[in-house]
Amino acid sequence: MSRRYDETDHEHYERPRRRTRPRTKERPSYDDAVDGVVVTVDRGRFTLLIEDRTVMAMKSRPLGRKGVVVGDRVRVVGDVSGRDGSLARIVEVIPRTTTLRRTADDDDPVERVIVSNADQLVVVTALADPEPRPRLIDRALVAAYDAGMAPLLCLTKADLADPEVLLSTYRSLGVPWVVTSRGGDLSELRDRLRGRTSVLVGHSGVGKSTLVNALVPDAHRLVGHVNAVTGRGRHTSTSAYLLPLPHGEGWIIDTPGIRSFGLAHVRPERLIEAFPDLDEMTEGCPRGCTHGAGEPECGLDEALAAGEAEPERVDSFRRLLAAREGHGADPGGSTAAGE
Fold first, then answer.
1. Which of 32, 44, 47, 198 is deepest in the core (most CB within 10 A)?
2. Is 52 a domain residue?
3. Residue 309 maps to which CATH number?
4. At what angle do helices 311-325 and 134-147 cross, to 10 degrees?
5. pLDDT of residue 226 exceeding 50
6. pTM score > 0.85 for this model?
7. In this predicted model, what pLDDT tens digit does every residue of 59-99 receive, in sequence order?
8. Is the peptide bond before 130 cis (omega within 30 degrees of 0)?
């Protein structure tokens, strides 16, 4: 049998071998990229706001498994005209200022990012119909402190119950609050939202989407209703959505239902840092002290014995710490939220 190639066949010598293509560390500079913000995410497609227009985009391959979430500030190339059928590419995620996280359960090591770049977490809770769930409020506050976000407690349906009963539990934490009623004045809430990017969290039926529709009249968020038998609301929001407040007064992010609000990612030292007055009392604590009730030689107990700490303040902090560890969680501890 004759050879397929003889020594005079140039193709035999000039055929490139596999894996011989030179590699380069140079990457595209994307000098023509424009800035945008992620408004919502749906099955791998991202709705962005670029200047005054809405643009659809996908994530570029070089980003790999890096997640892109609502609130992210991104750099975009490609067709950013916003025309029907156009599709741009997200090539860079600008470093986040804050990240609101959760885990599926308290022992789940996998963190899930809810939203980014928000500076205020608004915990929306109905005073009645459905009944408040303090454990859920506590967990949301822990998540806010861990993320470095300012918390705000928004109590709805004040026409059905007295807010003082619930407020007495959180007053010692120094958490600001606003109280609203059906069809009532929202000027105080607007003042709290002005100039900020706020995330609204609340379980079904608390009136979260009703608030969004009142604050942003053209939002058209679906409103759920509370089941008279189960006391739970119907899920209507399916994804987080970033909305601009009228007259450029800020942004709000309406979130979908979170069926569990695990806090496995929160470290006790991060939580105590949110309470500067208590943090300085724990400087002499033994190594590894969580500052919870029953910890030996905890500085908080010593400060209580010396009359240097407010008992209500310490009890409130330790209640949040217990919520983080999942102790004493009631059936409402996980949110069946969604509006």
1. 198
2. yes
3. 1.10.40
4. 90
5. no
6. no
7. 998 888 888 999 999 999 999 999 999 999 999 999 999 99
8. yes
